[in-house]
Amino acid sequence: MRDPRLLARLVPRKWNVDACLKHSNAAAVEKNKKNSTPACVDVYVPASHAFNPAVLPGFVGLAEQHGLKSYKDFHRFSLENSDQFWGALGSAYLDWQKDFTTVQESNFKTGDIKWFLGGKLNVSYNCLDRHVARTPDKTALIWEKDEPGKEERITYSQLLGMTCRLANVLKQANVKHGDRVVIYLPNCPLAVAGMMACARIGAIHSLVFAGFSADALRDRIQNCEAKVVITVDEMTRGGKVIGLKKIVDAAVKDCPSVQAVFLEQRSKNEGKATKLDVRLHDALSGVDAICKPEVMDSEDPLFLLYTSGSTGKPKGLIHTQAGYLLYAAVTQQVAFNYSPAEDVFGCVADVGWITGHSYIVYGPLANGGTTVLFESTPLYPNPSRYWEMVERLKINQLYLSPTAVRSLLKRGDEHLRDHDLSSLKTLGVVGEPINHEAWEWLYDKVGNRKCPIVDTYWQTETGGVIIAPLPADAGDPIYPSMAMRPFFGIDPIIENSEALVDHGADLAGAIYIKQAWPGITRGVYGDQQRFVETYFSQSPGHYCTGDGAIETPEGYFRVTGRTDEVINISGHRLGTAEIEDALDLHDGLSESAVISFPHSVKGEGLVAFVVMKDSHAKDDRKKIVKELKDVIKMKIASYAVPEEILICQSLPKTRSGKIMRRILKQIATSKTDDFGDTSTLADPYVLEAIIATWSETHTHAENTKT
Ligand code: WTA
């Protein structure tokens, strides 16, 4: 048995030690003995969830031709015969206007990645028309609005009608193949129709999460030089009204590329009209409900999605048509055990993030399924919201964030009582590591120990799930808090490990992927050099995820968190450099260092250590802290505001001037007994002053409302 204390030192921040023990069950049993709840030992894949090629398009043919039976057979085959595997799935899952001639040309040294070359298709045709031909009245979307019980159902034929009208409106506005369209909307049918309409005419959409500030929206619009923006005057979230139009108006003032702002009106407030405004209601009623789908090349861009990296500037990751759609569809079906003919898929993410793209919109619609568009919050009007919704909508797969699970767990089991959750078959989590307690609560209390938990590991860059407990064969184990098995076509390896020996048989280090899969991003918009440097330069020939992981001898993976300066607040990615750049906008700021600390609900919380210029040294601290918080809200979004902002005299630096963040992290987690090697610290006395400031001013960041 390896020594947990040793493990504690080696395992990246924020993981509790028991959670990192191989198989983890021994620790879970011990912990639960104390808590007197049964531990989640002996969790196995039930036969009903076992990988079954006979019910999956494309897989059945491969199984017959190559004698493949199990998940393991298929996984091996998908790596050794990548072209044959994805070629068969590409033909079976998608409808092509012209067949592809080459499955892939991928080079992880140069970052040139192409799939299904020569193929022509239309993504909106694949998501809508072909289903309308067979099941026009099937529900495509269930729009679960902010107020519970007010859901609206939209059929495939209605969604196609909306899409075509919107596509015609965009065409009238001179939006053409390759033009960029920014969509700034909450989860609502218009957002989906907007994505589909762009796909229909070959425009490239870029959704911006409707919690981002005007400045953040402006930066994204400017970066992609969007021609139009689609938005709504107001949205309601958790009972609160948020005026989106005002934010768009402020953003587009400095965006000369924008020629029109298409506006859906939900409220009676007329608001201030600008010369860019086009009222969607009027525009849509004046156009045809038929729009011929544009014939697109497999590798034409489908969308851009901005995400944080380790520099201050978010990058617009590019996803293209065929490979992305195929990967979203296959992973949605196989990793969640989704049956498109009968299941209701409940992914409660926001369409503005990649999870919403792949598992609210593209995956479920390509599969012809029914997908929920959840516009509210897990706590509105009370912490029973998800459970009441699961019962009412008869959701079969619920896909949520570990932060939401932790936050609901904290509020007690009584909120689950009196709700019939028997429709649930699979529970999925994503976005950040899930701790044991949250995993077990989900498995035990929500899933009634019947639903496999799929802890899905993936990224905006990967397009879809790359490591997850499913697919797997009947009776295969599922270990708590572990993403476990690589998806088909995914060949992860652990590299750069300093900890190989100490982990015994386990490998620990950074996780890389050896070969391309169809869903991988094709680049950073306008900056191919950044793409290659960020993802392919650390270990040439391998894709660098930027995450740390542990691999067991059985080949199961546990993802432990980022290895770079990217942090995960409630599952949302943020670069510390991005926040530091925002703080820098304050006139009085001299320098800052933003670090994260483990937060029991959000996964990670933020602390900013700031040094003010002499001219501001005597200013009222409360006032400065408020100003700094406002600057972050203005530049990024409210969720990026640190729990704590600490004004210090100076920051701990090496002699060469590099801030020693490791030390700040120790201070923020009150681990000040031993700072380890501080020989490179230029001025050791700064530590005392920072520790004193921390204990005087910090206000128990943990208790910050979530
Ligand atoms: C983290 C979200 C642990 C990881 C789909 C990754 C996870 C980043 C998991 C991507 C998981 C995602 N376990 N960590 N199951 N899933 N992450 O681009 O650090 O918003 O790099 O995509 O979230 O975040 P992104």
From TrEMBL:
Species assigned in the record: Hypsibius exemplaris (Freshwater tardigrade)
Keyword tags: ATP-binding, Ligase, Nucleotide-binding
GO CC terms of this entry: mitochondrion
Catalysed reactions, semicolon-separated: acetate + ATP + CoA = acetyl-CoA + AMP + diphosphate
Domain called AMP-dependent synthetase/ligase: residue spans: 128-523
Domain of life: Eukaryota
Chain ranges of the AMP-binding enzyme C-terminal domain: 578-658
The family this protein is said to belong to: Belongs to the ATP-dependent AMP-binding enzyme family.
Listed Gene3D superfamilies: 3.30.300.30, N-terminal domain of ligase-like
Annotated EC: 6.2.1.1
Name of protein: Acetyl-coenzyme A synthetase
InterPro entries: Ac_CoA_lig, ACAS_N, AMP-bd_C, AMP-bd_C_sf, AMP-binding_CS, AMP-dep_synth/lig_dom, ANL_N_sf
PROSITE patterns noted in UniProt: AMP_BINDING
Domain Acetyl-coenzyme A synthetase N-terminal: 71-127
Upper classification of the organism: Eukaryota, Metazoa, Ecdysozoa, Tardigrada, Eutardigrada
